[in-house]
Each structure stands twice: as C-alpha cells, then as structure tokens.
Amino acid sequence: MYAIIKNGGKQYKVQEGDILLFDKMSLEPKATIEIKEVLAVNAGELKMGAPFVDGAIVTAEVINEGRDRKVITFKKRRRKDSKVKRGFRRDFTRVRITKIAA
C-alpha cells in the first residue's frame, strides 16, 4: 500500500515506515501529524483524487528537526572580474510515516 501526498509544495510517494525530510514545521519530537492532502492511494486498486482523495489520511510521527549539509553555489563570469559565492543550509523536519488510512 502506498500513497502520494503533498507537503510544502512538493509531492512524495510514501509507504508505512518511510522516513522523509519535510520543510521545517517547528514541532516537538514524538508529535504526530495528520496529512489530509492525499493525491492518490493504492490499496490493491488506485484511487485518484480531484485534487485530493476524500477521507484519506496519512499519519506521521516527528523524529527530529535539523539542518542539511551546506550547499555552495559559485558563479563566475569569465574575463569580467565578477564572482559570487553563497552557501545555503536547508532546515528540515524528519518524519516517519506510521499509518495510511484510505
């Protein structure tokens, strides 16, 4: 059984027990989240939503929050003496999918 959910403008294909990195939600560890934006559920047969499946809920448990590794972006324009170096670290909330209810 799997589901396709929407969170933070992104879509994820999830199964029970999967661990995902969502955008930061400012929640405590062991908190539960109910995601009602379920786009599709496959439990033997595929149910598609328009845009969401009625009555489908995906339950997740927060593991922790943190920051990803730094990503360096470096731009250089040759022969122009122009260069830019920037770093970026994404804040995330790590969650474990506990239940998919169609």
Structure, briefly:
This protein is mostly beta strands and 102 residues long. The chain has no helices and ten strands.
What tags apply to this protein structure?
63% strand, four-stranded antiparallel β-sheet, 102 residues, mainly beta
Outline the biggest β-sheet: 4 strands, antiparallel
Number of strands: 10
Looking at the structure, what is the overall shape?
A: elongated
Order of helices and strands: EEEEEEEEEE
Q: What would the average pLDDT be, to the nearest integer?
A: 95
How many domains in all? 1
Distance between the termini: 10 Å
Q: Tell me the quaternary state.
A: single chain
Assign a percent range to the helix content: under 10%
The helix count comes to 0
Unreliable segments (pLDDT under 50, ≥5 consecutive)?
none
Write down the Rg. 18 Å
> Could you tell me the strand content as a percent range?
over 45%
* Helix/sheet category: mainly beta
Please list the strands of the largest sheet in the order they lie side by side. 2-1-5-6
